[in-house]
């Protein structure tokens, strides 16, 4: 069982549009409403793979009730934390050329009592979990050290923990030695305080996060592939992808694929790459099923191409 924690979930509306013309009436060609938030997406990908998952998340108001209903319909067990504020609603505009514009609301501010209830709910749901995946931004009311406290509690309970966040929350959590962290290129550059222009730059940055406390780093480099760096070495994974439709939730699908495959080594990296590549071929934040995967299109190597320029350098 994979337990996910999403401190700032959302109700996500995705509109597919031919192009985005500012100030004009734009007619959508497709529309989806999905439960959102990085941890929620991880649970959705785990469930799509036919595996058990429990999602812990604060929910409030009509949007929160709809999020719970949508997750239940996808076979995901929900451990809700009732909050007074309404769950945020986000909008994504996906253009036909692959460009995505997102409008993310801030979400409710959690009270001290709600913060403690969230931690206590994770504690009560942890027994029997193979992994806890803590994902996304922190809502108002949670200090950057909140994830660090959660990592410490998970380890005290003997549960492995994966962390997908950024900025001060990521840096604060490193001291508690999360089992794996999953930054994208921009988050990796932010964590080390310098731009990344090559795969080698990303490798060095991942090694620095390990030196700071992360036991493993799974770095998403967008169209350039993914890096895995742990105590046993470094691996680089790529997949050929035709017809990118939406990259919403692709990184979350990758993390789910990594954890489903055991969360360690090149085999888990291959699963992460396959899930991420499948996700970008699907609309909105639809998560891939096993039938969507193309494992034969994935290449994983221990010969990291350190001199290869990143197609999207991170600053």
From TrEMBL:
Gene Ontology terms, MF aspect: 1-phosphofructokinase activity; ATP binding
The keyword Aminoacyl-tRNA synthetase is assigned to this record: no
GO BP annotations listed: carbohydrate catabolic process; small molecule metabolic process
Residues making up the signal peptide according to the UniProt record: none
Keywords linked to the UniProt accession: ATP-binding, Kinase, Nucleotide-binding, Transferase
InterPro entries membership: 1-PFruKinase, PfkB_dom, Ribokinase-like, Tagatose/fructose_Pkinase
Entry-linked Pfam families: PfkB
Domain Carbohydrate kinase PfkB: 16-290
UniProt xrefs under Gene3D superfamilies: 3.40.1190.20
Stated family: Belongs to the carbohydrate kinase PfkB family.
NCBIfam families, per database record: 1-PFK, pfkB
Annotated protein name in UniProt: Fructose-1-phosphate kinase
Source taxonomy: Bacteria, Bacillati, Actinomycetota, Actinomycetes, Kitasatosporales
């Amino acid at each position: 069982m994979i337990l996910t924690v999403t401190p700032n979930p959302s109700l996500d509306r995705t509109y597919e549009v031919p192009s985005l013309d500012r100030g004009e009436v734009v007619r959508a060609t497709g529309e989806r409403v999905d439960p959102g938030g990085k941890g929620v997406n991880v649970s959705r990908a785990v469930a799509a793979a036919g595996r058990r998952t429990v999602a812990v998340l604060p929910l409030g108001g009509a949007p929160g009730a709809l999020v719970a209903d949508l997750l239940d319909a996808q076979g995901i067990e929900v451990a809700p934390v009732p909050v007074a504020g309404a769950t945020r609603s986000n909008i994504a505009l996906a253009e036909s050329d692959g460009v995505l514009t997102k409008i993310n609301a801030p979400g409710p501010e959690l009270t001290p009592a709600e913060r403690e209830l969230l931690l206590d709910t994770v504690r009560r749901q942890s027994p029997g979990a193979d992994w806890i995946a803590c994902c996304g931004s922190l809502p108002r009311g949670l200090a950057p050290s909140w994830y660090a406290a959660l990592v410490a509690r998970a380890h005290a309970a003997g549960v492995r923990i994966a962390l997908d966040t950024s900025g001060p929350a990521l840096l604060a959590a490193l001291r508690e030695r999360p089992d794996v962290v999953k930054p994208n290129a921009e988050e990796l550059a932010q964590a080390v305080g310098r731009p990344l222009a090559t795969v080698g730059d990303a490798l060095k940055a991942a090694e620095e996060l390990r030196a700071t406390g992360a036991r493993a780093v799974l770095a998403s480099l967008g169209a350039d592939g993914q890096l895995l760096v742990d105590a046993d070495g470094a691996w680089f994974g790529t997949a050929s992808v035709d017809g990118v439709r939406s990259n919403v939730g692709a990184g979350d699908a990758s993390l789910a694929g990594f954890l489903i495959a055991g969360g360690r080594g090149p085999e888990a990296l291959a699963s992460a790459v396959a899930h991420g590549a499948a996700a970008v071929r699907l609309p909105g934040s639809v998560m891939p099923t096993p039938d969507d995967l193309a494992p034969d299109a994935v290449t994983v190597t221990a010969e990291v191409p350190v001199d290869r320029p990143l197609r999207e350098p991170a600053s």
